[in-house]
Amino acid sequence: MKRIVGALVLLAAVGAAFSSPRAQSAAGAGGLDARVKAFLDANRYGWRDMNVPESDGQLLHDLVIKGGYTRALEVGTSTGRSGIWIAWALSKTGGRLITIDIDEGRHQEAVRNFKEAGVAGFIDARLADAHDLVPKLDGPFDFVFIDADKEWYTNYAKAVLPKLTVGGLMTAHNVSQYGGRRQQTGDYSEWVRSQPNLETSFSAGVMVSRKTK
Q1: With contact defined as beta carbons under 8 Å apart, do 167 and 140 qualify?
Q2: Is residue 45 part of a domain?
Q3: pLDDT at 43
Q4: What's the average model confidence in pLDDT over 136-159?
Q5: Is there a contact between 207 and 192 (Cβ–Cβ < 8 Å)?
Q6: Among residues 87, 76, 91, which one has the least CA distance to residue 145?
């Protein structure tokens, strides 16, 4: 009888542990991880239409996790590959992503991809002209990814930099460390590196600038 009672007590304790908010949160995170991984693996070779390569998506994810960022902005959704990587990271930091695209077809496909990947709840996907919308966003943001019309990069940066928190990152795709004009991004590279409150580095095709003050 004592053994039976002891076993019941143990089972009750295990059940309580797994029903605790922390355990449920961990279980939910594990389920989302599996779902996102499965989606990305299944679509690994099917991305087109100006999406980032997998290595850059992984980089964005890791930067968000490392910085513990929670308020992200993406300028240029395309069909959602980069947004999925960023939102996946935000699901672990407790954050949310605003992502903007002007093309209705890409926007709709991205929304479908966000839902299928399981990260739609962490994303505010907006169909809009980023030229108009970005300056109007209130912020603040602690992580920004720019991957839209290349000739407008500097304008986007000027609009978001005042809204970027100290310690936050402003990242941009397809920028060469040897000069922005080599990648049709106008004077973006030179402008960013001229800002006294930004520390900049490069990782493959991503320019990463941290706001220091």
Answers
A1: no
A2: no
A3: 82
A4: 96
A5: yes
A6: 76
Tell me, yes or no, whether 207 lies in a domain. yes
Same domain (yes/no): 114, 193: yes
Phi, psi of 181 (to 5 degrees): -65, -20
Task: Decide if pLDDT at 9 tops 80.
Answer: no
Instruction: Assess whether 28 and 59 both reside in one domain.
Output: no
Write out the residue range of the structural domain in which residue 154 sits.
50-211
Is there a domain that residue 69 lies in?
yes
Tell me the pLDDT tens digit for each residue of 115-135.
999 999 999 999 999 999 999
How far apart (Å, rounded) are the C-alpha atoms in residues 88 and 118?
Answer: 9
For residues 121 and 206, membership in a common domain is answered with yes
E strand segments, the chain: 71-75, 96-101, 123-127, 141-146, 164-173, 198-203, 206-211
Shared domain for 29 and 131, answered yes or no, is no
| Across 183-201, average pLDDT | 89
Strand-pairing partners, residue 209, are: 170, 200
User: What is the value of pTM for the model shown?
Assistant: 0.83
| 94, 141: one domain | yes
As a whole number of angstroms, the distance between CA 205 and CA 168 comes to 19
pLDDT tens for 69-82 read 999 999 999 999 99
Q: Count of CB atoms within 10 A of residue 149's CB? A: 16
Q: Could you tell me if 54 and 107 lie in one domain?
A: yes
* Same domain, yes or no: 23 and 118: no
What is the total count of domains within the chain?
A: 2
Query: In which element (H, E) is residue 55 found?
Result: helix 54-67
Cα–Cα distance for residue pair 179/155, rounded to 1 Å: 17
